Amino acid sequence: MSIQGRNIDHPEAEYKKFLPLVHTKEGTYIFHPGFIYQSLLKETSISKSDAQKITEQVVRFLISANLKLITAPLIREVVNVHLLKNGFETERLLYTRIGLPFYDLREILNNTNDNEDVIPDLMNWIITEYHAVNKLIQEKHREEEK
């Protein structure tokens, strides 16, 4: 298995048949572990070896969960759990997804006549959440500098 994203389409990649499909807004795709590895390197300060270790743990988890279909947000949640399990608290904050839970968004939309009216409220929610996470990241950086 090539976690770094090379040879992920190789026909001998037997592990792929055990992985779920990934459903996105663009369609349904074959799961590629290299995307996790690359996004960890891009979005966090994690080392290549730690990114590979986390990616392998996530792939093992997804195989053992025996799921048929997953979403990109679920993959991110699983990655975050493995970051925490390995002591990467700051990296987990950097990798977090900011937005609303499905239930909350459904309630907001069901209780609004015009979806356009909720856009400012949704943006405020997201921006507030961003600032809260950013504050935590800054605090972690200050702690690490001590």
- Secondary-structure-based class equals mainly alpha
Described by strand count, sense and barrel closure, the largest sheet is:
3 strands, mixed
Q: Give a count of the beta strands, DSSP E runs of length 2 or more.
A: 3
Number of continuous helical runs: 6
Shape: flat
Helix content: 55-70%
Rounded mean pLDDT is 87
The strand order across the widest sheet is 2-1-3
What is the H-and-E element order?
EEHHEHHHH
Q: Tell me the number of structural domains.
A: 2
What's the alpha carbon Rg, rounded to whole Å?
Answer: 18 Å
Q: How much of the polypeptide forms β-strand, as a percent range? A: 5-15%
In the predicted model, the low-confidence regions spanning at least 5 consecutive residues are 1-9
Short overview:
With about 150 residues, the chain is mainly alpha-helical. Helices cover about 60% and strands about 10% of the residues.
